[in-house]
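Fold Annotation — chain and its backbone
Encoding — discrete vocabulary of local shapes
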Amino acid sequence: MKNSPYLIFDFDGTLIDSFRAAMEKLNLLADEFNFRKISSDEVDGLRDLTSRELIKYLEIPIYKIPSVLRCARKHMRSEMQALLPFTNLPEILQELHDMKIPLGILTSNSSENVTRWLERNKMEHLFNFIHIESSYFGKKRILRKILKTYKIDKSQTFYIGDETRDVEAAKECGVYSVTVTWGFNSEKILTQHQPHYIVRKPEDILTICK
């Protein structure tokens, strides 16, 4: 590539191993918001569902999603710092940083949660920006806003996420879609959405930048 690529990462499920904790928090909120609880034998199967299919399966009305996510973030705050980055990911991010490749984060998690977690794992210096904005089905709009705000060339931009909605947002914005297989959605359902790149281990991210 002539110009340096710009890598924008999703946070939950991509940088931080938060899937199981998130499922537990959803169950804590099920009674309060009157939606379906998740049994332990259902968890792995949920990874084969798209974001919209999951919401439908849990019987969460669309209008309740912002409130559910807001409460889930509050519940996650107490244990965020105990959650770990995926194996070898900090080292790969450091290598990308050393290669002068700019990195950013797009997340709907809270600024406090993300900043404290990055600091605890000594990763806060690796990112050029952390963009906090919540919109469960509006990542396309947020991604476009980031490209404009930070004056990023979309032809050299790679959006790295773990869900089908991340793939959709990237492709609709005209940036490269990179999907990781260690997060929320399974490789099976992610492949069906035809991302530009499939990353099965953090080291694979380096090959994109060469």
Summary: The mean pLDDT is 92. The longest helix spans residues 19-33. Residues 6-17+84-208 form a domain with the Rossmann fold fold (CATH 3.40.50.1000). The chain is about 45% helix and 15% strand.
